[in-house]
């Protein structure tokens, strides 16, 4: 199974970052290559949505069900799509001097090797750019804040 994992310390609260990531309906306006989102259902602790990722003629569509821990994390699991397995997690850990550590991990395996060859690099590119997209959106929504130094929780 392939995976993508990235983590960054930001000068925004865990709640602020959680709210951005949980607002899936806004993704097409700022998440690279996310061309459409269809919200299927939403409660305070669960969300089901279909995302369409596009780059040129390449399109990848899949549906996930997310379980949320408000202000702390989001766990994603595959409902439908071209994957044998897909699961992901967002974690938002408060830091002692303010801000939070935002971590994204995506584990996936395509349903067959041909799909993996066709879309594997594309999915890694999208997933790898997501954390930065949310950091950029935080600056637009909450205002620019100075970068925080590396610190321990």
UniProtKB/TrEMBL annotation:
Coiled coil: none annotated. One of its GO terms (biological process) is cellular respiration. Transmembrane segments: none annotated. GO terms for molecular function: ubiquinone binding. Gene3D superfamilies: 3.30.530.20. It comes from the Bacteria. InterPro entries: COQ10-like, COQ10_START, START-like_dom_sf. Residues 10-135 form the Coenzyme Q-binding protein COQ10 START domain. Keywords: Toxin-antitoxin system. Belongs to the ribosome association toxin RatA family. This is Ribosome association toxin PasT (RatA) of the RatAB toxin-antitoxin module. It comes from Methylomagnum ishizawai. The lineage of its organism: Bacteria, Pseudomonadati, Pseudomonadota, Gammaproteobacteria, Methylococcales.
